Amino acid sequence: SYDETTVRIIQQDIVKSDLQAKALIQDIRECTGSVEILNTLNKEISEQLKSMRNSIEELENLAREQDKDTDKHNLLKEVEKYHKLYAANQFALRKANLSCLALIDKQNKEELFERSEPRKRTRADKESLAKQSSSITDNLMAISNMMANQVKQSEEALHTLVNSSSIVQETGEEFKTMGNFIHQSKSLLQKYGRREVTDRVLIILATIFFFACVFYVVQKRLF
């Protein structure tokens, strides 16, 4: 049997990371600042998702170490549930990033258009615009790479989820087969039990018949 305290601590860590990740995703949805702010939020949420993934893997390893099939089955069902939460967070994060990037890009284009008017255009403005454009491009590329890594992690999480689901299904089939075997064994035992009672009754009747025959023979010879 597994240590319930250890499992409870791991589950609390998973839930804590999940809630913090969801809060940061909401911050990204509402983000109206710069790409730098978006990068900071993404860095924080990446740490939370990494912590969540590590805790899920720890729980999965604990499940696979169980000797008792029922304990393994129950823990793997919990692991499957947490993998789905993790995948949902990654999907929500990508969606929030795309929405925020589109808004930031729109704001930057409007700002660039306003600052590029002939009357306001100066050498300093041109240098500032060029520097800002370069910074935006670099940040967008960094976010693109980060999102590519998250896609890869999602694929790995999906693969793990499929494996966990397969194991849970196989364990369920084993339980079903074991249940059928137990039911058949019970039927056989009941059948043998009834036969044993019948045999005892027959033996008693045969004994009574034997003594009746003996008594009859003795009676005939004596009288």
Automatic annotation (TrEMBL):
Its main location: endoplasmic reticulum. GO terms for molecular function: SNAP receptor activity. Residues 35-69 form a coiled coil. It is a single-pass type IV membrane protein. GO terms for biological process: retrograde vesicle-mediated transport, Golgi to endoplasmic reticulum. It comes from the Eukaryota. The chain crosses the membrane at residues 201-218. PANTHER family: BNIP1-RELATED, VESICLE TRANSPORT PROTEIN SEC20. Belongs to the SEC20 family. This is Vesicle transport protein SEC20-like. It comes from Parasteatoda tepidariorum (Common house spider).
